[in-house]
Design a protein that fits this description.
With 292 residues, the chain is mainly α. The protein is globular, with a radius of gyration of 25 Å. The N and C termini lie far apart (53 Å).
Length: 292
């Protein structure tokens, strides 16, 4: 007497294999669709903008004439903005993560804070623009300055850095803590000499990816009144400024078709900067990450 119904097993196996093939091709088509859309977008951008991309484009200011327009002020403005955003967001983000993971008591209040930090990471960027306009531009009277823009962008990416830093700290095994305490180290010495060195690769990776998002944002800076047409470079953090996304937005809004080609050249420059930043993040993750 056989205890296994071979026919039933054969039918069940056939159904599972059929479902597997259906979902396999469904996922393949979804991936292929995304690749085709991305390839079409890149092809259109490069074919339109490569003719305007030269050294003069990188070293010239914006102009009313498309053949004389450049992206120099926008590049320098973006670098000024990142010079303010990076230290503020990293210091506050890492400090918050250390407090929540190492010092804060695990209770309803800390869980409430954790949930809200995670929710803030998904808030539309224009909301942070309204917050920056209210607090930094009007209440603190910073005006349309690099400082106001940098602090606004810091608010935007702060939740992302906090979550990334928390995940990096959580990945450190308890044995590392116990070994440090067994050697007589205090809690702060353990954090400074054991936790942070081990978590820095993950923290830097998350921080660079967050800054990559910030450098491509437009809505928050438009809300605080960043200048769309500028023919000078910022001299300090209190100067007016523009950034590459805003300059590209300004060109695409022009009725002349030539300005659309200039905008495509600006998009190429912005893509190159984003690729460089993301490549640095991947390099740090692969080269310096310690696996326990």
């Amino acid at each position: 007497m056989s205890l296994i119904d071979k026919e039933s097993v054969r039918n069940s196996t056939g159904k599972r294999l059929t479902k597997n093939q259906i979902f396999r091709w469904l996922f393949f088509l979804a991936t292929l669709f995304g690749i085709v859309v991305l390839a079409t977008l890149l092809f259109r951008i490069f074919t339109q903008g490569i003719g305007y991309l030269d050294w003069g484009f990188l070293t010239s200011f914006a102009s009313r004439f498309p053949e004389e327009s450049g992206i120099k002020a926008a590049i320098v403005g973006s670098l000024w903005l990142m010079a303010v955003t990076a230290p503020v967001s990293l210091i506050l983000g890492v400090g918050t993560a250390i407090y929540l993971e190492e010092y804060a008591k695990k209770n309803k209040w800390t869980r409430f804070i954790q949930i809200n930090i995670s929710n803030l990471a998904g808030v539309p960027s224009i909301v942070f623009g309204l917050l920056g306009l209210t607090i930094f531009v009007r209440l603190l009277e910073m005006g349309r300055s690099v400082m106001a823009g940098g602090l606004t962008m810091s608010l935007l990416i702060l939740p992302i850095i906090v979550v990334a830093a928390q995940e990096a700290i959580r990945s450190i095994p308890n044995e590392q803590y116990e070994a440090s305490y067994a050697m007589g180290a205090t809690k702060w010495q353990t954090i400074r000499r054991v936790v942070l060195p081990a978590a820095i690769p993950g923290i830097l990776t998350g921080g660079i990816l967050a800054l990559s998002r910030a450098i491509g944002e437009t809505a928050p800076l438009l809300m605080i009144g960043a200048i769309t047409f500028i023919a000078y470079l910022p001299e300090s953090v209190w100067s007016g400024f523009t950034v590459m996304p805003i300059q590209i937005f300004n060109w695409t809004s022009r009725p002349q078709e030539e300005f659309h080609y200039v905008a495509a050249a600006g998009i190429i420059v912005l893509l190159i900067m984003l690729i460089i930043m993301n490549s640095i993040a991947v390099f740090i993750r692969n080269k310096f990450s310690k696996r326990y």
